[in-house]
Protein backbone atom coordinates (compact mmCIF):
# COMPACT_ATOMS: atom_id res chain seq x y z
CA UNK A 1 0.00 0.00 0.00
CA UNK A 2 1.30 3.43 -0.92
CA UNK A 3 1.99 5.97 1.80
CA UNK A 4 0.05 8.61 -0.16
CA UNK A 5 -3.11 7.76 -2.09
CA UNK A 6 -4.57 10.10 -4.68
CA UNK A 7 -7.40 9.39 -7.10
CA UNK A 8 -5.89 9.74 -10.58
CA UNK A 9 -9.18 10.79 -12.18
CA UNK A 10 -9.48 12.02 -14.84
CA UNK A 11 -11.82 14.70 -13.57
CA UNK A 12 -13.79 16.85 -16.00
CA UNK A 13 -15.89 19.82 -14.90
CA UNK A 14 -17.59 22.79 -16.58
CA UNK A 15 -16.09 26.25 -16.25
CA UNK A 16 -17.15 27.93 -13.03
CA UNK A 17 -17.57 24.70 -11.06
CA UNK A 18 -16.05 24.07 -7.66
CA UNK A 19 -13.38 21.39 -7.85
CA UNK A 20 -12.41 19.15 -4.96
CA UNK A 21 -9.15 17.19 -5.07
CA UNK A 22 -8.16 14.83 -2.28
CA UNK A 23 -5.34 12.74 -0.86
CA UNK A 24 -5.09 10.35 2.03
CA UNK A 25 -1.93 9.26 3.79
CA UNK A 26 -0.88 6.67 6.31
CA UNK A 27 2.40 7.92 7.80
CA UNK A 28 2.06 10.10 10.90
CA UNK A 29 5.55 11.51 10.21
CA UNK A 30 4.00 13.54 7.40
CA UNK A 31 3.56 16.95 8.98
CA UNK A 32 3.86 19.42 6.08
CA UNK A 33 1.56 19.33 3.09
CA UNK A 34 1.75 20.78 -0.38
CA UNK A 35 -0.21 20.93 -3.58
CA UNK A 36 1.54 21.22 -6.91
CA UNK A 37 0.07 21.95 -10.33
CA UNK A 38 1.73 20.41 -13.37
CA UNK A 39 0.96 21.48 -16.90
CA UNK A 40 1.83 19.21 -19.79
CA UNK A 41 5.56 19.09 -20.48
CA UNK A 42 6.33 21.30 -17.50
CA UNK A 43 7.63 20.72 -14.00
CA UNK A 44 5.37 20.71 -10.94
CA UNK A 45 4.63 24.24 -9.70
CA UNK A 46 4.04 24.83 -6.00
CA UNK A 47 0.50 26.07 -5.30
CA UNK A 48 -0.03 25.69 -1.57
CA UNK A 49 2.13 24.82 1.44
CA UNK A 50 0.66 24.25 4.86
CA UNK A 51 1.37 22.68 8.20
CA UNK A 52 -1.58 23.05 10.47
CA UNK A 53 -4.88 21.28 10.37
CA UNK A 54 -7.54 23.61 9.04
CA UNK A 55 -7.92 25.74 5.94
CA UNK A 56 -5.49 27.95 4.06
CA UNK A 57 -6.80 30.18 1.33
CA UNK A 58 -5.00 31.80 -1.61
CA UNK A 59 -7.24 33.43 -4.16
CA UNK A 60 -9.49 30.79 -5.70
CA UNK A 61 -7.56 27.97 -4.02
CA UNK A 62 -8.21 26.58 -0.55
CA UNK A 63 -6.08 23.84 1.01
CA UNK A 64 -7.62 21.85 3.81
CA UNK A 65 -5.76 19.52 6.17
CA UNK A 66 -7.28 17.07 8.64
CA UNK A 67 -4.40 15.40 10.45
CA UNK A 68 -6.68 13.33 12.65
CA UNK A 69 -8.14 11.67 9.56
CA UNK A 70 -4.91 11.84 7.56
CA UNK A 71 -6.78 13.53 4.76
CA UNK A 72 -5.99 16.63 2.72
CA UNK A 73 -8.00 18.48 0.10
CA UNK A 74 -7.57 21.23 -2.45
CA UNK A 75 -10.62 23.22 -3.49
CA UNK A 76 -10.70 25.38 -6.59
CA UNK A 77 -13.52 27.91 -6.79
CA UNK A 78 -14.80 29.38 -10.05
CA UNK A 79 -12.66 26.95 -12.04
CA UNK A 80 -11.20 28.18 -15.31
CA UNK A 81 -9.98 26.34 -18.42
CA UNK A 82 -6.47 27.51 -17.45
CA UNK A 83 -6.79 25.34 -14.33
CA UNK A 84 -6.69 22.25 -16.55
CA UNK A 85 -3.60 20.37 -15.39
CA UNK A 86 -2.47 17.51 -13.20
CA UNK A 87 -2.57 18.28 -9.48
CA UNK A 88 -0.15 16.48 -7.18
CA UNK A 89 -0.35 16.37 -3.44
CA UNK A 90 2.93 16.06 -1.55
CA UNK A 91 3.85 15.54 2.07
CA UNK A 92 7.08 16.07 3.95
CA UNK A 93 8.29 13.39 6.30
CA UNK A 94 9.81 15.52 9.05
CA UNK A 95 11.97 12.66 10.26
CA UNK A 96 13.57 12.03 6.88
CA UNK A 97 13.32 15.59 5.54
CA UNK A 98 12.02 14.55 2.15
CA UNK A 99 8.73 14.62 0.31
CA UNK A 100 6.45 11.87 -0.91
CA UNK A 101 4.14 12.64 -3.80
CA UNK A 102 0.73 11.37 -4.79
CA UNK A 103 0.33 10.08 -8.34
CA UNK A 104 -1.63 13.16 -9.39
CA UNK A 105 -5.19 13.89 -10.48
CA UNK A 106 -5.75 15.08 -14.04
CA UNK A 107 -8.29 17.90 -14.21
CA UNK A 108 -9.99 19.28 -17.31
CA UNK A 109 -12.13 22.41 -17.06
CA UNK A 110 -14.35 22.75 -20.10
CA UNK A 111 -15.36 26.20 -21.39
CA UNK B 1 11.46 35.08 -10.87
CA UNK B 2 14.05 32.51 -9.76
CA UNK B 3 13.83 29.13 -11.45
CA UNK B 4 15.53 25.76 -11.46
CA UNK B 5 17.18 25.27 -14.86
CA UNK B 6 17.64 21.84 -16.41
CA UNK B 7 19.52 20.85 -19.54
CA UNK B 8 19.00 19.30 -21.96
CA UNK B 9 15.20 19.55 -22.20
CA UNK B 10 15.09 16.51 -24.46
CA UNK B 11 17.51 13.67 -25.08
CA UNK B 12 17.17 10.71 -27.44
CA UNK B 13 19.96 8.18 -27.53
CA UNK B 14 20.64 4.53 -28.09
CA UNK B 15 20.81 1.88 -25.45
CA UNK B 16 24.26 1.58 -23.92
CA UNK B 17 25.18 5.24 -24.32
CA UNK B 18 26.10 7.49 -21.42
CA UNK B 19 23.56 10.17 -20.55
CA UNK B 20 24.33 13.25 -18.46
CA UNK B 21 21.61 15.56 -17.20
CA UNK B 22 22.40 18.91 -15.59
CA UNK B 23 20.60 21.10 -13.11
CA UNK B 24 21.21 24.62 -11.88
CA UNK B 25 19.36 25.05 -8.58
CA UNK B 26 17.85 28.35 -7.50
CA UNK B 27 20.60 30.63 -6.20
CA UNK B 28 20.83 30.31 -2.43
CA UNK B 29 19.06 26.96 -2.25
CA UNK B 30 21.16 24.29 -0.58
CA UNK B 31 18.98 21.22 -0.99
CA UNK B 32 18.75 19.52 -4.37
CA UNK B 33 16.57 16.58 -5.36
CA UNK B 34 16.49 14.35 -8.44
CA UNK B 35 13.18 12.73 -9.39
CA UNK B 36 12.04 10.45 -12.19
CA UNK B 37 8.48 10.65 -13.47
CA UNK B 38 6.72 7.96 -15.50
CA UNK B 39 3.06 7.24 -16.17
CA UNK B 40 3.27 3.97 -14.28
CA UNK B 41 5.25 5.06 -11.21
CA UNK B 42 4.55 8.75 -10.87
CA UNK B 43 7.27 10.86 -9.23
CA UNK B 44 10.04 8.77 -7.69
CA UNK B 45 12.83 10.28 -5.61
CA UNK B 46 16.22 9.17 -6.89
CA UNK B 47 18.67 11.22 -4.83
CA UNK B 48 18.84 14.10 -2.39
CA UNK B 49 21.67 16.49 -1.54
CA UNK B 50 22.12 19.06 1.17
CA UNK B 51 25.03 21.50 1.01
CA UNK B 52 26.35 19.44 -1.93
CA UNK B 53 26.63 16.28 0.16
CA UNK B 54 24.54 13.27 -0.84
CA UNK B 55 22.13 12.41 1.95
CA UNK B 56 19.94 9.78 0.36
CA UNK B 57 20.33 7.96 -2.94
CA UNK B 58 18.41 4.85 -1.99
CA UNK B 59 15.97 5.36 -4.86
CA UNK B 60 18.68 5.21 -7.46
CA UNK B 61 19.92 2.05 -9.24
CA UNK B 62 23.52 2.15 -8.04
CA UNK B 63 24.99 0.05 -10.79
CA UNK B 64 24.22 2.51 -13.57
CA UNK B 65 23.15 5.82 -12.03
CA UNK B 66 25.32 8.40 -10.30
CA UNK B 67 24.53 11.85 -8.95
CA UNK B 68 26.99 14.58 -7.99
CA UNK B 69 27.19 18.24 -7.12
CA UNK B 70 30.55 19.54 -8.37
CA UNK B 71 29.68 22.97 -7.00
CA UNK B 72 26.74 24.82 -5.48
CA UNK B 73 25.41 25.90 -8.88
CA UNK B 74 25.50 22.54 -10.65
CA UNK B 75 24.02 19.12 -10.00
CA UNK B 76 24.46 16.24 -12.42
CA UNK B 77 22.72 12.91 -12.91
CA UNK B 78 24.48 10.34 -15.07
CA UNK B 79 23.29 7.04 -16.47
CA UNK B 80 25.90 4.63 -17.83
CA UNK B 81 25.05 2.40 -19.61
CA UNK B 82 21.53 3.58 -20.41
CA UNK B 83 18.68 1.13 -20.98
CA UNK B 84 15.22 1.52 -22.59
CA UNK B 85 13.57 1.22 -19.16
CA UNK B 86 15.33 4.45 -18.15
CA UNK B 87 13.09 6.38 -20.54
CA UNK B 88 11.23 8.93 -18.41
CA UNK B 89 11.16 12.59 -17.49
CA UNK B 90 13.85 13.47 -14.96
CA UNK B 91 13.20 16.44 -12.70
CA UNK B 92 15.54 18.39 -10.52
CA UNK B 93 14.13 20.37 -7.61
CA UNK B 94 15.78 22.66 -5.08
CA UNK B 95 14.77 23.90 -1.67
CA UNK B 96 15.81 26.88 0.44
CA UNK B 97 18.50 26.46 3.05
CA UNK B 98 19.06 28.07 6.40
CA UNK B 99 16.78 28.36 9.34
CA UNK B 100 15.81 25.77 11.87
CA UNK B 101 13.37 23.94 9.68
CA UNK B 102 15.34 23.55 6.48
CA UNK B 103 14.11 19.98 6.18
CA UNK B 104 10.52 21.10 6.01
CA UNK B 105 10.72 23.58 3.18
CA UNK B 106 8.90 22.84 -0.08
CA UNK B 107 10.78 22.15 -3.28
CA UNK B 108 10.75 24.10 -6.52
CA UNK B 109 11.02 22.12 -9.73
CA UNK B 110 12.68 22.62 -13.08
CA UNK B 111 10.88 21.69 -16.29
CA UNK B 112 12.66 18.37 -16.60
CA UNK B 113 14.73 16.41 -19.10
CA UNK B 114 12.62 14.15 -21.29
CA UNK B 115 14.80 11.10 -21.91
CA UNK B 116 14.17 8.45 -24.53
CA UNK B 117 16.45 5.43 -24.78
CA UNK B 118 16.01 3.48 -28.02
Structure description:
The complex is a heterodimer of chains A (111) and B (118). Chain A has no helices and eleven strands. Chain A is an all-beta fold and 111 residues long. In chain A, strands 2, 4, 5, 9, 10 and 11 form a six-stranded mixed β-sheet that branches. Chain A has a five-stranded antiparallel β-sheet with strand order 1-3-8-7-6, with no helix packed on it. Chain B is mostly beta strands. In chain B, strand 4 and strand 5 (42-50) form a beta hairpin. Helix content of chain B is 0%, strand content 55%. Chain B has no helices and eleven strands.
What secondary-structure arrangement, pairings included, does this model have?
The complex is a heterodimer of chains A (111) and B (118).
Chain A: E1 4-6, E2 11-14, E3 19-25, E4 30-38, E5 45-50, E6 54-58, E7 61-66, E8 71-76, E9 85-93, E10 98-101, E11 105-110
Parallel strand pairs in A: 2-11
Antiparallel strand pairs in A: 1-3, 3-8, 4-5, 4-9, 6-7, 7-8, 9-10, 9-11
Chain B: E1 5-7, E2 10-13, E3 19-24, E4 29-38, E5 42-50, E6 53-56, E7 65-71, E8 74-79, E9 88-96, E10 108-109, E11 113-117
Parallel strand pairs in B: 2-11
Antiparallel strand pairs in B: 1-3, 3-8, 4-5, 4-9, 5-6, 7-8, 9-10, 9-11
The rough form of chain A would be described as globular
Radius of gyration of chain B: 14 Å
Structural class given helices, strands, pairing of chain B?
A: mainly beta
Uncertain stretches of chain A: none
Low-confidence stretches of chain B: none
Summed over residues and divided by their number, the pLDDT of chain B gives a mean of 90
Amino acid sequence: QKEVEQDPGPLSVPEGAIVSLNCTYSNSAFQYFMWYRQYSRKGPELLMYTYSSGNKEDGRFTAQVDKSSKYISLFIRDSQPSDSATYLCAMINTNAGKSTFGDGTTLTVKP
Amino acid sequence: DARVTQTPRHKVTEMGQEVTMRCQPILGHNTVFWYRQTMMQGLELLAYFRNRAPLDDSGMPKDRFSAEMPDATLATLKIQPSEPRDSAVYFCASGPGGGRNVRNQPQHFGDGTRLSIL
